[in-house]
Amino acid sequence: MPDLPTERTSEISDDGEDLCCDLPHNGSAASTQQLQQAPLSSEKAQRMAEFLGFLADPNRLRILSILAEQEMCVGDLAMAVGMNESAVSHQLRTLRTIRLVSSRKQGRHVFYRLQDDHVFNFYQAVVEHLDEPAK
Amino acid sequence: MPDLPTERTSEISDDGEDLCCDLPHNGSAASTQQLQQAPLSSEKAQRMAEFLGFLADPNRLRILSILAEQEMCVGDLAMAVGMNESAVSHQLRTLRTIRLVSSRKQGRHVFYRLQDDHVFNFYQAVVEHLDEPAK
DNA sequence: CCAACATCTGAATTACTGTTCAGATATTAA
DNA sequence: TTAATATCTGAACAGTAATTCAGATGTTGG
Fold first, then answer.
1. Looking at the domain covering A42-131, what would its CATH class be?
2. Which of A106, B66, B123, B131 is 20 to 30 A (C-alpha) from B2?
C-alpha cells in the first residue's frame, strides 16, 4: 500500500472560530448535526458499495469488457482472460447473482452476456473516466 | 495469474448452431479470438479496479456524500457518519492518498473536501445510477 | 509551562474476497 | 452405456482491507 509523505505544511493558526468545532466534539452533537442533509443513508451506501465492489475487481472488469463486445461461453472467457474455468465460473456466478450478466444455455455451453444497456453504459462511463487526459 | 493447464483434445460436435465452441477450447483459440479488441489490459483493469475499490466502501461513500455537500473536519465527519475518529482518519488518509479528497489545516482542525469536480461528478453518476427506477 | 483537544499513526485483530482444489452435474458423441 | 467435454459447486486457503486500541504528534488556551 502506498503511503503518503506525511505532509504537514500548515502555517495557518488563527483561531478558527468561525466554522464548526467551537465546542468539544462529543458533547455538541446536536449543534453539529443540523448543518446539512443527512449523509447517505447506511442502507443506500451499502447498496452503492456493493455495486461498486462487484465492479472493483480486475478479472471481473476484464470479463465484462469482453462481454461488452460479444456474448461468450465460459471456456472461451477463461482463455481470453487467462484464468482457469473454475475461477471464471465463480466470478460469473457473482455477476449473475447481482444481475450484471445473464446467460443462456446451448448444448453443453453456457453463453454469457451483459444483462442490459444500463450495465454497458455504466461500464463505458468508468472506462471513459479513467481514459480522461491529464488525470 | 496461472494459465489454464487443462488439456482438451477432442472433435467437433455441432448441434446445429455454430458460435464458438465447435472445437475444444485450447486448440481453437484463434477462431474464438476474433474479438474486435483485446480484453481490457491487465494494467488498465488494475487501475480501474483500484479506483472502484476505493469507492466501494459504505463508510467512504458516506464520507464522500458529506464532502460533496460541504467541507468538514475530522471530528464532525466522525460524528456525522457514526464512526470513531481514528477510523475516519484512516479512511481519510486513504482517500487523500488517491487524491479523492484534499485537506486544509486550520488551527487544530483539518478540513476535508472533495478533490475536484471530477470526483464530484463521478460520485453523482453513481448515485444517479442507483437511483434509477425499476432497477 | 501544562492540560485539553484534534488528529494522526502503527500494530493487532477481525472480516472479507478471490483463487484453487477436488469433485459433482449435465450434455453429447461413440 | 461409457468417455469426454463444459460448467458448476463447496470447502479450504491466502491475501487484503477495515476497525480498534494505545499511544504519538501537534495546537490552543490558561
1. mainly alpha
2. A106
